[in-house]
Amino acid sequence: MFLYSRREHNEVRGYAIIPAMVTSRGFAGLLGACLCGCQLIQYGKPPQETEAQRLNRMASEVQEQVEQTRGIHFLHPPKVEPIPAAQRCKELDSAAQAGWVARSGMDLQGSDRIWQAAGLLRDGDSSLQQRKHLDCIASRSLYQVHSKRILVFLDSMGQHEEHALAHEMVHALQDERLDLKQLFHSTKEPDEILGILGAVEGEAEFIATRSMEKEGSTVECGGSNSGAMWKLDKAIRSLPDLSEIPSSIALPAYVPYVYGERLACRLYQRMGLAGLDTLLRRPPKGSWQLSRVDAYLQNVLVLDWDTSWAFLPPLPPGWKALGQARAGEAKLAGLPLTWDRKVARKALKDDGLGWNGDRLWVACHPQKGCALFWRLAFDDVDKARDFARMWWSLRSIRLGGKMPVWKDKRLMMTWSDPKGKTYQVRVEGCEVGIGEGFDRMATRRFLERTLQRRTRKLD
Asked: Which residue, among 354, 339, 330, 2, has the nearest Cα to 189 in the 3D structure?
C-alpha cells in the first residue's frame, strides 16, 4: 500500500509520508517534501489517450525500472487498473477481507478490549474501524494479493504516480517470488506481524525510491533512530485528516514503512541486493528489530514469558480471562502519546523507551469491568524506573489526578479507589510489573507470581 495526505476538495497535497522521512532530510523534511513536488516526474497526457492507456504505458516503464533496480524480472507482470475515487473505500475494504499486503496493519488478531484495558486505546476507539478510516483517506494505491492486480485511485492521479506504481510493482514481484499471503499465515502476535510487514513494505519503499534516482547516486539511509518514534508521531499529527487518528493506531501503521525502508537501505549498504533477499527470507521478529538494525542482523531476541494462564494464581470468583498479547515497542510507544504529549515527549524524545519485551494479560468481570497485569522488561534499571513513573503518571491522568505522586526513589506505588479497585506498579531490576483492576490482595498475588517466573528468549 502507498499512503499519502490530501488537502480539502480532494487536491493531492502530499506524496508518500514515507520517502521524505527516511532520506537524509529526516523527519523535519517531511512537510517540506509534501509542499514541493519537484523531485518526481510528471507524465503529460498525450492527446486522445485514455486514463487506462496512459496508466498502462506508465506501468510498463515503471516495471522496467523496478526490474533493473531489483535485478529480478517478472514471469507474469500484474494487471494495473485505475479505480474511481468513489470506489476507494469499498475497494480497500474488499481488499482487507480478501488479503492484501498491508492487511496486517489492521490488528485482526488482537482485541480492542485488551488494548483499552492497557490504555493503548481510549474508550470508544476501534482499532479496526479507525485503521479502515486511515487507509481510506490516505491510500493512493494497493496491490491485491488474491487477484494479482495493482489498483490506482483516480483522485490521486497527477501526483507522483510513478513512485506509487513502483512501490506496488515491488509487492507484485515479492508475491511472485515468495507468496506474500503465506508469509503472514504462521504469525501469532500483532507485533510479529509488524516486523514482517516492515520487511515487505521496507523493501518496496527502498526499491521504489531507488528506481526513481539517477544511476550511480549515493544511497542515503537517514540518521539515528534516537527519539524517532516521537518525531514520527509529530509528523503524522501535522498532516491533514490524520490528526484525529489515535497514535496507538497511526504509529504502528507507519512504522513498517519508515523503519522498514531504513532497515532495507542499511542492509543494501552492507550487503547489496543479497541484503534485501535476506530481509524477506528472514523478516524481523517484531518492531524492535525494525528500529534497531544491529538487533536484526545479530538476531537479538527480547524477553518473553509463559503466554498461558495456567502458571498464574486462580482468578477471583466471577472473573474470566479475556486474552493476552505482547504490545511490542511500536504500539507501546503510542501509550503516552494517547494520553499526554508532555509525558510522551519526556519518555520518547531521546533514546526512546528502552523496551526489551512485555507480556500483557487481561481478565474481565460482568459488573467490575476489566483488569490487567503486565510484565515489561527494559534495557537498564533507569529505563525501567522511568517507565514505571510514566505509567503511574498516565494512569493518574486517566483517573482525574486522584492518585498520589510517585516519589523519585520509590520502587513500588499502590493506590485503591473507594470501591476497592487497586492499582499497583512495581520495579524489580530492569523489569516492571503492573497490576490494576483487582482487589489489593489479588493484585499483590498476581504480581508476585508474575515477576518471579523465569524469563525466556523469544523463539
From this structure: 330
